[in-house]
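Batch manifest, entry 17 of 40.
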Amino acid sequence: MMQPIKFIHMADTHLGNQQYNLPERKRDFNKAFNWVLNKSITEEVDFILLAGDVFNSNNSEPETIAAIYQMISEFKNNSMQNLKREIPIIAIEGNHDKSNISTKRSWLQFLAELELIILLSPKTNNKEEYTIFKFVPYSENKKNPGMIRIKDTCIYGIPSYGAMTKTYFPDIYNALPDSSDTFNILMMHFGINGQVINKLGFEMSEDLKLLHKKVNYLALGHFHKKYALPKNKEWVFNPGSLEVTDAREIWENYPRGIFLVEVHDKENPNIRHIPWVKGKSESPDEIPNRFFADITIDIGKNDSSSFKEALSYILESLKIILEKKGTAHLKKNDLELPIVLLTLNGTISYSRLEVNINKLKERIKEKYDVLDVRVFSGSVKSEIDGIVVDISSEKSLEEIEKDVFLQLIEQHPDYEPHKNDIIQLMLDLKSSILDPKKNFDQLRNQIKLWWRSHISLPQGELNKN
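Output type: structure tokens
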């Protein structure tokens, strides 16, 4: 019989995310993270897994670092007072956490040096055709461990490698020991294809499936939507983000939250998903999030002859919806004070150029208690000018880059079957080239390794520089 263990698996906390340039949103993300820390004490877990993208950016401001320092320090003190022991936070770096051109170290490395978290990363030795991974135990090297054992559970951690990740699956398998007497957790940061619309991920390939022979629980981060795979025989788990990071997560009703896992028998772990909830909650099993009011109004319905008339119609329509939520006189730190996601659609009889989004936002903020208003008008059409404004103004820089790369790739039909993988590779290479610690020989070898695993070319062509 193995020693029972209990743990929380979370990811994509994105601390420091001042979404929509709202300082209060940064505090919302802190609240969600702190809720999970308190929940872990209540549940008396053995450890917490934090599977990457802890920070929204490695260029986080001092305010964010000070806040997480205080939260984790208080958490360690509270766990000692309540449980007479500390609950270790075991983390890996996600793509948002890694050092970049302006920083030589990541903030997670800094937190690990302060002994606030345990940051896992294997030692690597890159060869021409493969990579050697070595998971150094925490008991042997507390500064740069690749794994840690707690009771009869072994936790291995690998940071985000972007598009190169799937080429490393066979090397990771070879590096993992055959430990049939322990419950083995592997923590990584990547997504699985098909789980999130328009998000690049990896297929459940044979190389990935092979890891299950040595891994009981694959703890993922990266995609902000909860999933567990394969169906009915789950061993791959992604909890989703703690807070809303993008309007699409509301529109597509992403399930998100954390996993609370209890293991008495390693073949049959008890896994419970604790979800988020809009606004405040008295339930101990719901993670309070900022309330987002998702509202759609057809501005062609009331036969307005001008946007000025449509504006009055919109404000009157919102009165019914917003006042039902009882939002009057709420403070900014109250999670019930909503961010309004207002989608306008319909066919109008006046010019599309008359639609004044800034004026609309201004009037809504004047009339109602809201934290912010985001307006999406891409579906509004005009009978007289046919102008349709795309919603692309709301696209992130990463989405714009992906669109540009996709257009470049589509000029070469031979690469069509690999377009998603190539886009991810291009994004990763851009980040690597900007990295102050870049190694061009290593980058060259990584490109060759990626190419061998995706594109069939004669060996002589591949070896050309």
